Amino acid sequence: MLDERKLKVLYAIINSYIISAEPIGSRTLSKHYDIGVSPATIRNEMSDLEELGLLNKPHSSAGRVPSDKAYRLYVDSLLNLNNISIDEEKKQKVKSILFSESQEVDQLLQTSARVLSEITNYTALVISPHLENSRIKHIQLLQVSSNQILLVIVNNSDIIKSTIFKVDSPTSSNQLNTISNFLNEKLNGLPLNKLKDVLNMGLLDELYEYKDLLNKVIPVLNESVYEAEDVELYYEGVARLLNYPEYKDINKAKTILSFIEDKDKVLEILLKENLGNEIQIVIGEENVYDQLKESSIVTATYSIDGKTIGKIGLLGPTRMDYYNLINTLRLFSVNISEILEMVFRK
Amino acid sequence: MLDERKLKVLYAIINSYIISAEPIGSRTLSKHYDIGVSPATIRNEMSDLEELGLLNKPHSSAGRVPSDKAYRLYVDSLLNLNNISIDEEKKQKVKSILFSESQEVDQLLQTSARVLSEITNYTALVISPHLENSRIKHIQLLQVSSNQILLVIVNNSDIIKSTIFKVDSPTSSNQLNTISNFLNEKLNGLPLNKLKDVLNMGLLDELYEYKDLLNKVIPVLNESVYEAEDVELYYEGVARLLNYPEYKDINKAKTILSFIEDKDKVLEILLKENLGNEIQIVIGEENVYDQLKESSIVTATYSIDGKTIGKIGLLGPTRMDYYNLINTLRLFSVNISEILEMVFRK
DNA sequence: ATTAGCACTCGAACAAGGGGAGTGCTAATA
DNA sequence: TATTAGCACTCCCCTTGTTCGAGTGCTAAT
């Protein structure tokens, strides 16, 4: 269907357009790209490519512009190239930057977003780990003052949730320990998403002498489930989009920026399954949301123990620099995963 | 210096310009505002006001536009009006919204920013409490697993900091309690900002049998100081700025949006002392940073026990709707303070 | 199959001109 | 003496017309 020369022409147009954002004509093409045939021949090829839906004309006497379908063809071939050879030197460079600014998980992700955006010049999107299968590892109640108790819950990723709550009557530390032990016995190893069921099924009845206190603890436990499921979104470099002529129209800029500010929608996109692909690319019209029909999103996963727990991504115009992007995202994906495993699983 | 009629003309121009963003001429002014004199007279007054530096002309045959100095005059008179009569009904309405979505402090602030921006149509900026004078209230070490220990620090605002760290040799819970008690004894009531000094002054020596463990604990304590001082910045409604003609030029939009993304600079502005004023307004050229010379920032404080601990603010073009803004910010200031006191000081 | 040649198309960029909202000045008015 | 009507003038904005050039598609020659 597409012979080598057609591909050559198509890729030349794509590469040119990614750089310049200008429609490109047959003459310019033959001058700057080594196609080996005359402009007239290129024109014929272009005409064929247009018929195939791979090129568009802004108007009848303008040059050609790649269609979303063309980008799809292009990125699929890039992804199939399987050039997973990560530049060790670059990798260490990025790693040391991320490492040096990351005392905590959220800082690591924030920094990643910032650096990713700086390097690529696109808007970076990062979500925090969602630990669907995290399990309760330790529960402890502590006396803080005469009528205040601290509840600490640790899960198997060592993410800690703690809350203080008031009690009406003072409780001895022995009592607290008894309850703590009881809770640990009952709940240790329990997946967080099962916690609600267990709580609903009359865990209370067994330790009815501490009923009042347990009644205080249970809402807090419930809440902690909720928060563990709560995924954070970090984004950086939103203003960078305004560098691209695609968003020079203020209404287009407003559309895309408003969309990015809608965290729920962005999260929805980033939480969608990657279907086993390390890198996922959604181009222009392929996007579900209308506001993104003229933009692309490239995402990569990061993981702990080989299990995907979060994503990083870049948002920009459909003519994104996919080639470099894919490599950069791979770099960050690997680095984030490694740092997470190394540092935060103590 | 400024007789009543001049003020009338000036305020009419300001009000008109705040709504329309268009220069206003003498004829339109006399038609739509009840000045009571002819356009010719208004022209004379305008000419005087221009000489006083209160009005500007975009070009010789255009209407007049208020200067920064005029806005300053205007907002100062607004602030002196002292119409601190807060609409109880509105207040409760906002309060119930904020309340319903705020399980945690950071959520409260995030929601506040969002709602504030929605109501006003400007970009909202909010910083988290900076608890300079927060004191250590409780410290506890806990066994999590055979070689992992959890350190919990509670301050007098009940903000909890907890970290897990590894130890080489298992430690008994008795030992941990001994150290916990020791640390509590030494550090209880200590202001966080004094902690570093105390740590540097050989706290170690007294309990040398646990030296190894203490050496692990101290960096964590140190870090906790750092984090307690770490102020978070939340912003919402950045894209809303693009609605204003002031930012319809893509370069101006880029300038202001890039600035907002620079959290350090924004924090610096928000952390500046309010000098006893509940509401602080910085107009156009009054701003330190060049990127803000065509914008204004209005901030209000929020507090616990009458002590200012954070700020909320709004950013927009110099012709902001100061009158409504001041009242809305007061509303949020009071509500945030009340919710903080009510809910989070358990 | 490829290419040179050519007529044609369309947008971008620039210039010219009319319309309109505004100004400042002067002289008349209360 | 303060106010106002009248008027000439200014300058931006918008529309219209024109040119210029990069690009196309078609046809005929190689």
Fold and architecture overview:
Two copies of one chain form a homodimer. Chain A is of the alpha+beta class and 346 residues long. Chain A has three domains: 4-66, Orthogonal Bundle (Arc Repressor Mutant, subunit A); 86-130 and 232-343, GAF domain (Beta-Lactamase, 2-Layer Sandwich); 136-229, Heat-inducible transcription repressor hrca homolog, domain 3 (Enolase-like, domain 1, 2-Layer Sandwich), CATH 3.30.390. Helix content of chain A is 48%, strand content 18%. In chain A, strands 7-3-10-9-8 form a five-stranded antiparallel sheet. In chain A, a hairpin with an 8-residue loop joins strand 1 and strand 2 (65-66). The A-B interface holds A 103, 137-138, 140, 142, 144-145, 148, 150, 152, 154, 158, 160, 162-166, 223, 236-239, 242-243, 247-248, 250, 253-254, 257-258, 260-261, 346 and B 103, 137-138, 140, 142, 144-145, 148, 150, 152, 154, 158, 160, 162-166, 223, 236-239, 242-243, 247-248, 250, 253-254, 257-258, 260-261, 346. The structure holds a DNA duplex (30 and 30 nucleotides).
Looking across the biggest beta sheet of chain A, what order are the strands in? 7-3-10-9-8
User: What would the principal axes of the Cα set say about the shape of chain A?
Assistant: elongated
User: Main sheet of chain A, how many strands, which sense, barrel?
Assistant: 5 strands, antiparallel
| Most extensive chain interface and residues per partner | A-B, 35 and 35 residues
The CATH top-level class label of the largest domain in chain A = Alpha Beta
Q: What is the averaged pLDDT score of chain A?
A: 87
CATH topology of the largest domain in chain A: Beta-Lactamase
CATH superfamily of the largest domain in chain A: GAF domain
Q: What level of helicity do the residues of chain A show?
A: 40-55%
Tally of structural domains of chain A: 3
Secondary-structure-derived class of chain A: alpha+beta
Cα-atom radius of gyration of chain A? 27 Å
